[in-house]
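>> received
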Amino acid sequence: MNEFSLIEAIKQKTYKQASLERGIGDDTAIFRETAGELAVAVDTFVEGVHFTEKTMSPFQLGYRALAANFSDLAAMGALPMYYLVSLVVPDRMKESKLLEIFKGMEHLSNRHGADLIGGDTVSGKDLVLSVTVIGKIEKGKARYRNLAKVGDIVFATGTLGDSRAGLYILQHDLQIDGRDYFINRHQLPTPRVTFSNSLRSIKRLALNDISDGIGNEVHEIAEESGVSIVLEDEKVPTHPGLAAFPAELQHKWKYFGGEDFELVGTVAKKDWQTVQQKAEKLNLRVTAIGHVMNKDEHAVYLDKNGNINKLSKEGYTHLK
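>> returned
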């Protein structure tokens, strides 16, 4: 398959976004500027670093790459509009597998009404997939990390450590209870776009997506907001199946595993009930896991069995 036949194969016949003037077919895509604000994010996935054939099919790779970007949009309170895809394609890759990557992205983009509007393709030694997304935010509703204030409730969606457990199961070919659940959470995560946008009525809300581990993400909120945060260990949500693993791994994955693509945030106590009600309508678990306090060092503390200690800023570091 050459570049031009690939373009024809993945080109959408119709587009979902009314603001799009021109999609794939010219040197650039053109869309009208809309009221409000635009959010742009990009993520790159490299074979052998972020995935292998053992842990991810082409369909799952496409889905997950787009999900990671949609999760970034969710953390900003943005709705997905468009995405662009750049690929480094090795000679050994079959045409069918290449198209499966785009099918995975299409599966998720259809849920959120997002359109594929361009990208680039080159040949190379290893498979590299880079996705850029563009989303829209209602004016004044961007959910910045610097919006946390003393007295806020800290909350998280879903359960944490699932994706890392799924990867471990795949790497070691473990046959345990909950195997399918954990693997699915690793390969086909659910970005919390709908939940994030259901909170538009809340005036002030700090959000971060849990891509590099909640230990990292909560530190970023504390540092940007100039506050300190206390997490209560027994309240940080995990799936019951995680108990099948050694306690050391449970702790590591819970706080530093990452790639669950859940959301962690802070909200004023008066708005906490609204957060709970919106989550309940979506059948989404949301848990109060701590609070924001005033401390000079802008640190994160973990309260475990009454012992309060600093939680280290660890997790996945891309250039480590």
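>> The first helix runs from residue 3 to 10.
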